[in-house]
Amino acid sequence: MTVLFVGSGRVPWKMGSYRGGVSVCPLRSRLGVLRMSNVETDALCLGLDRGEQKSWKHRGYRVAYEEAGMEGKQRNELPPLLLVHGFGASSRHWKKLIPALEKEYRVYAIDLLGFGLSEKDVAAFRSEDGNRIGLFKVWSDQIDDFIQSVVGEPCLLVANSVGCLAALEVACRFTSQVVGVFCMNPSMRALDVRKRSILQNIFAPLAMEALKVKPLGEFFFSQLQAPDILRQVLLSAYCDPSAVTDSLIEDFARPARDQGALDVFLEFITYDRGPIPEDYFEILPVPSMILWGEQDRLEPLRAGLHLEHFPSVHKFVVLPNVGHCPQDEAPHLVYPYLQEFIASVVRQPQVGRQQ
């Protein structure tokens, strides 16, 4: 497995050979530095809302999704791409990447239950007897059903943050529906009971119980919805402040005003059990690639760099001057690696570890 650090172009690399648009600078046997050549970004930054918005029902719950890309035989050798957003986001978080992808692939971007324009009913995360169902089980069931009912053939999953865990669970539970998983800054679930420090083990449960008190939970959620505070939250997720636009803020704020959004929010932030990324990568039966923004303050690189050692991770790429959401902040850096990964999956679709 290879770890790559991608240069921003601001660093004066002086060594390395030129190969097809990248300068490869070996540092040691498993580590290299790349500087991208000039990449045309117009297609990645224009025409941001060209996909078709649709809806579909999963177990009676409304699911919103976006579909883009041409149909036809010219696409039958390439897997459809299913884009899975992170916490609080929606299919709109892929609006800078879809215009480039739709030229070559069938593309679907789904809103997970509880987010975006999908239904926000906490009952979706409860069993018939009222017990809590794991979030990632609910979302993986939703994605598997979507692949079978809407897409109609196995997909390559492209995910960010918490969406990576949902995608990985689909790949582990419904292997026949997934040909590969492309992860960007996966959530490491630092507050899971298996990862908390001694102090976190004391204070995290207290905070979670406090938020379950309706007035406190409502107040906390309302504060997060305030534009100024939401802007600060997003600025902590992005390296480039100019990427945090009014449009981006509204993309996150609007769904949070829907009925039921508070209950789903509390369901998520009080969920401190269940799988962690290491559980998935240990048994992942399909190939994967990980991209990580080096300036991610929400999920620091140091917390996830060890994922490179899992055999199912075929490449781990570090993107400098990029934060938690590379697909929105640096789509021109993401696109070449996604193309590379898709090509490798098409050439050798069964290279992942078998269960």
From TrEMBL:
* Stored Pfam families: Abhydrolase_6 (PF12697)
Which residues does the UniProt record annotate as the domain AB hydrolase-1?
A: 81-334
Which InterPro entries does this one have? AB_hydrolase_1, AB_hydrolase_fold
PANTHER family xref list: ALPHA/BETA-HYDROLASES SUPERFAMILY PROTEIN, ALPHA_BETA-HYDROLASES SUPERFAMILY PROTEIN
Protein known as: AB hydrolase-1 domain-containing protein
Identify the taxonomic lineage of the organism of origin. Answer: Eukaryota, Rhodophyta, Compsopogonophyceae, Compsopogonales, Compsopogonaceae
